[in-house]
Fold this protein.
Amino acid sequence: MFEINLAGFLLAAGISFLVTPFIIKLAYKLGAIDRPDGRKIHTNPTPRFGGVGIFISFIITLIIIQYFFPKTNLSNSADNFNLPVLGFALLLVLLVGATDDIKNLKPGQKFLVQFLAATLIYLSGIKISAITNPFTGSLIDLGYLSFPLTIIWLTGITNAFNLIDGLDGLATGTGIIAGLTIFAISLFNNDITSAVLGIILAGSLFGFLGYNFNPAKIFLGDSGSLFAGFTLAVLSIQSSTKGSTAFSLIIALLALGVPIIDTSLAMLRRIFVWFLPGQSKNKSIATKLHSMFLPDKRHIHHRLMASGYSQRTTVLLLYLVSSAFGVCAVLVTAGSLNASLLIIGLGIFLIVAAKKLGYKEISLFSNGILLHFYKLTILKHSVLQICLDTLAIVGAFSLSYILTISTYQPVFFSPGVPEFLITALIVLIQLSTFILGGLYKRNVVLLGFGDFLQIFRVVITAVIITAIILNFIPVLTASSHINVFMMLDFYFLISMVAGLRFLFHTLNYRFNRESEKGSKVLIYGANWKGMIALQSLLQTDQPKKAPVGFLDDDPELEGTFMNGYPIYGGHWKLEGLINKGMIDEIIMTKETEEIESFKRIQSVAEKYNIPIQISKLNFETVGKQYRKGSSSKENSKMIRKTPLTTNPI
């Protein structure tokens, strides 16, 4: 079998290498030329009809392999492959790409053909029919969701591959690595057809790479990127789901890691940019959605080049990343790598990479997006809270149900009509409990400890009512393990409901910390009055004052923190902090008449020309002279306002 695969790779590479010069001449005759513009890297007009040569090589090699090595039996494979249907679907994708190379098509037209081709593949039997339960490794049948998820995967990977075709040889080399990865995975799963198709595609791309690597004589064009991307998408489904591994979709994601990551980052930053301060609010939703699919120069390869790497170095770096993903996919397939740990490591890698690449749109706290959300009145409206709680109820119930079933009956199962009906009933009951419990009569921005206690009481009441009802509904499998099921439901539900409300405080705190600009303020008094002064500084809309920390003469507080701000020590530390340039102003929270150290603080402040202010919270009785009909000016003379005031000295 190794000889057949090696022969297929070399034959495909040879045919592709020989055919490509003729394709270059044909591209010039047909006008399939990619001309430079502000978004593109190349500076000379270059033919972009490369996919035609790759397709010819792929088909001819496939026919020859089948003819001279009949034991491969590709035409009668038992691996769910219907080669005539696959060939027709690939031809559709190639034709729409080739047409776009000659005369630019609208995105909707290209997507329609891709949708038809993906539907043919689904009907032929190649589909994503199950996903992995991340907690137990068992498989969950998708049922009716199989079709949309398969279509999204096939069209998404196809266009993701198209998006990375921005540098000479990048998409071609990535396709070679992905094809070889699929070849290795298929061999582990004893999927001969996918292995042969993967190695032939890799060979066709390898022969083309000699003309496509920098400086490129020809580009893949849409004909090449769409054809290669669609083929890899089909093979990734078949090769990764045929085996017995429980992490099938993860393997497919790894095999095509670079285009998936690049596309995901592009989609995220294009969505987040809608909410950046200063962006136009007059654009329609349709216009914003359309902008998500427009090309730009901020893909991963563009950002690497902006960092100073040459085009060749950038391509080689991304080859290395693709190879690393491919090796991980093979190791997971072979059972030599823990997929859960790999996912965690990959998540950390993506966060660090996004930061290093300078995607400010994705840096939620520093770019102002979350602050913009936080200031929206709708976020504090009870209607939105009800919607979020509904999602929390569904999520908590579903997770608890899946975990309970998977733990006590770790078999392949598919949620049916009873589960969905009961979920709807539970949502109605628990949401009604939340409403009757007064959960939506509380200001989520000003929640205190007492409010969270009430949330705890309401949630546990909702869960108890749910447990009583489920005792009388034996149709649910989880009802036989009601104690475990409801403990999980309570844990998830209280975490989500309380967490959503706590999120408002987190956003406010993080943004005030991230956007601290202005005069640096030191607060004297690390007590409840100091906390009030701190909150007043953070919440004020007046010229910004940025707290830097506290001073307090209590020696036990030195070196500790209050609300995330350091307590530097007593008043004797003041001069050293001023000399370090850490202080522009001082706020006192203790009565000056009772503080002996105040004179020393005032002396140091006068020496360095540092202003001092006093924060006071006063309560005064309203006198009889306060009249309903009096003007605001008159009343302001009769009564002092009680909120926190800051008075200069």
